[in-house]
Specification:
Chain lengths: 325, 242
């Protein structure tokens, strides 16, 4: 606990809300259901697991921010791949060393169990499953896949495939950064900067075939000054409003067809203003908020978040130009 | 058993819950209600008790608790990728083209669960601390419903200090989950969906469950009728401790 990197340890609790959308793609396939989008059949709500979001963040921090990631998939990158034995040797490091080396352990914790050691850290950062703010309807796309099979004479022959996508889904994630668990993993404010960068730009830069067309829309971090306190369920206070109210939820195809009603959220923040240290946010310019019947476009939301002098800061993630290493 | 004096009452809810049934391994199923062991975890998270430090506090001699189902119980299956430990314990064992240690596993979740919890702790200092935390809507660690991504929210209902034990021999309506071995259930109306579950009551310091009990509850959050049961009047509710 004596290193310089612990200087800015997280000492405040935060609540996070993150909204993004996806077009004609699949935000999170179900491995046991032909990789179809996850949908609660009863409500029509699209579900995205927290594991998916954490994977997005880890991949981004590894590929674009050169962070060492503990839980990562080893692909066949020659020279980089570590054998299991090498990784196990690393485990001979003590817990402190592992926490110092891997940002994902500091953020999300882990349970590590090998023969003679067992370590559990509660992750200071936890997310709920993401849920769409409207009903969705999957669409089946037919296509052909040509597998580059070796030695095959007829290269033109492809296989017919069926893939399910969502024409549109506006997904909302909710998370908490717990300051007490942060102490056990030595989580720093610099780690949080990277986390927020990963949430925003990881979502934007996730360019696998199934996830092209993801756009981060709104990110909010409410930092509390009162110890052990957070409002709770902040994401439930944001409601989707359709411009054309007669339109079916399932027919929504674009962010321009909806507004985000944040009146309840702003009112709740007002009620809690004495407990809030600061508010950080990022927003995409195409988002239209609805505050007490008034349209507020993109970064103009800042004025509404400035409640009785609570400092509000735009994170500037929208303008970051990440370079792949 | 000591006299029950003050009882703390709070509501807890979330998007999903998973109180894992211990006997299920390949596709984890959930109990319908927070069990004694789950509840001790939730309360300890709020209080900031370190893991493995709180078993004695929740020994049946030191705690009385009850739970009321507030939302109709609905379940959903969500498939989650686990790591098959036979092929490798870590994600670095996932090497493309080889047999995958990933093992998609169907998890059963409760959907939009909401419960009312009634709790009496023998340790008065701890009960007062819990009251303070609940009153101020504070929690030391982030409380969750079974697994950490199932973040919970809660609301303090109140502390009730005139807890009266009803000594009636007659049929009475109760609002909470009841214990099979300490109640006689009366079913005299139609349309009730009565569920019986065998739940773990408490764990010892080796995380071994020491006692299981059979409980009854109504899946659509309706009250049940019982007789010959020790019922406590708490606020406007008839409560049976587990």
């Amino acid at each position: 606990m004596n290193e310089i990197e612990h200087k800015n340890r997280v000492v405040n609790r935060s609540e996070l809300v993150f909204i993004y959308d996806i077009k004609d793609a699949n935000p999170n396939g179900d491995p046991m259901d032909e990789n179809k989008p996850r949908i609660d059949e009863e409500t029509g709500i699209n579900i995205v697991t927290d594991v998916r979001l954490k994977r997005t963040i880890r991949d981004y921090l590894h590929n674009f921010r050169k962070q060492a990631i503990f839980i990562k998939e080893e692909t066949k990158e020659e020279g980089i791949q570590k054998t299991r034995e090498e990784r196990l040797k690393e485990l001979k490091k003590d817990g402190k060393q592992l926490l110092r080396d891997y940002i994902d352990l500091r953020l999300f914790g882990a349970t590590i169990a090998v023969k003679d050691m067992r370590m559990t850290w509660i992750g200071p950062v936890q997310f709920r499953f993401g849920r769409s703010l409207h009903k969705v309807e999957p669409k089946t796309i037919k296509g052909t896949t040509v597998m580059p099979a070796e030695e095959k004479k007829e290269k033109k022959a492809g296989t017919f495939t069926e893939t399910q996508i969502l024409p549109y889904s506006l997904i909302c994630f909710y998370g908490i950064i717990n300051e007490n668990a942060a102490e056990t993993t030595n989580l720093s404010e610099e780690d949080i900067d990277l986390l927020l960068d990963g949430i925003w730009n990881g979502t934007k830069n996730l360019i696998t075939r199934s996830k092209v067309g993801q756009i981060p829309r709104f990110l909010l971090r409410v930092v509390y000054k009162e110890k052990n306190y957070h409002i709770g369920d902040l994401e439930k206070k944001i409601k989707l409003v359709k411009l054309d109210s007669s339109k079916d939820d399932k027919a929504i195809r674009d962010i321009s067809e909806i507004k985000l009603d944040v009146r309840e959220m702003i009112n709740t923040l007002k009620e809690n203003k004495d407990r809030i240290e600061k508010i950080e946010y990022e927003v995409n310019s195409d988002v239209v908020f609805l505050v007490n019947g008034e349209d507020v476009k993109g970064a103009q939301i800042e004025d509404k978040l400035k409640i009785d002098g609570i400092p509000v800061e735009r994170l500037g993630l929208e303008t970051v130009k990440p370079k792949e290493k | 058993m000591q006299q029950i004096d003050k009882v703390l009452v709070f509501d807890i809810w979330g998007d999903f819950a998973h109180f894992r049934r211990i006997e299920t391994t390949t596709s984890p199923l959930t109990y319908s209600i927070p069990t004694g062991t789950a509840l001790s975890g939730i309360v300890s998270a709020i209080l900031g008790q370190e893991r493995d430090s709180y078993y004695n506090v929740f020994h049946p001699e030191n705690v009385r608790w009850a739970v009321r189902v507030l939302h109709p119980l609905k379940k959903i299956r969500i498939n989650i990728n686990l790591i098959n430990t036979k092929l490798g314990f870590y994600l670095w064992d996932i090497i493309q083209g080889k047999e995958q240690p990933r093992s998609p596993t169907p998890f059963e979740f409760l959907k939009e669960p909401k419960y009312r919890i009634y709790i009496w702790l023998k340790d008065k200092e701890l009960q007062n601390k819990l009251k303070k935390y609940l009153q101020n809507h504070q929690s030391f660690y982030t409380p969750y419903l079974g697994i950490s991504e199932l973040i919970a929210n809660f609301n303090f209902v109140g502390e009730f200090d005139n807890v009266i034990e009803l000594k009636s021999k007659n049929k009475e309506e109760v609002h909470t989950v009841i214990r099979k071995d300490r109640s006689t259930l009366i079913v005299d109306e139609e349309g009730l969906h009565i569920v019986k579950e065998r739940i773990p009551l408490f764990m010892d310091s080796n995380r071994v469950v020491r006692e299981y009990v059979d409980v009854f509850f109504e899946a659509n959050a309706k009250p049940l009728k019982v007789k010959d049961t020790s019922i406590y009047r708490i606020g406007n509710e008839n409560v049976v401790f587990i």
